[in-house]
Amino acid sequence: MITALDTNVIIDVLEPDPKFGPASRAALRTCLREGSVVGCEVVWAEVMTAFGGNREEVVAALREIGISFLPMSERAAIHAAECWSRYRTRSRGKERIVADFLIGGHAAVQADRLLTRDRGFYRDYFKALKLVVP
Fold first, then answer.
1. 100 and 121 in contact (C-beta within 8 Å)?
2. Which of 2, 71, 101, 115 has the smallest C-beta neighbourhood within 10 Å, fewest atoms?
3. What is the pTM of this model?
4. CA 10 to CA 8: how far, in whole Å?
């Protein structure tokens, strides 16, 4: 079982967030027991930005937790673009950043499920994607 990781969950774990941290840690532990947990370029970039500092330390922390880097495939990027296009035609004035669509496309094509706190968005635009919500 491959679980793709959304940035919000790993930030909950690394900060540690008092509100969301415990549930995110428990969900991450469960996903790690059931298989591998991966993050794409977007997750890596967002985590690096959130924690600034020493990139090697952040990568080492991710690896120590058990999170692997899995680059996005061309097919995943195309799927993300298709979902983004549907969003753009449906949304009237609301702007959702493309990064969320890239994370969703990566999970939908290259993983079995996505670990995220953002269930509403992913259910709306990635209907076939199985979600694990802490």
1. yes
2. 71
3. 0.90
4. 6
Q: What is the pLDDT of residues 33-62, one digit of tens each?
A: 999 999 999 999 999 998 886 888 899 999
Q: Which amino acid, one-letter code, is at 77?
A: A
H or E segment at 67? Answer: strand 67-69
- In angstroms, the CA 72 to CA 81 distance is 13
Do residues 32 and 9 touch, judged by C-beta distance below 8 A? no
Q: How many C-beta atoms lie closer than 10 Å to residue 73's C-beta? A: 14
- Rounded to an integer, what distance in angstroms lies between the CA atom of residue 94 and that of residue 78? 22
- Tell me phi and psi for residue 74, to 5 degrees: -60, -45
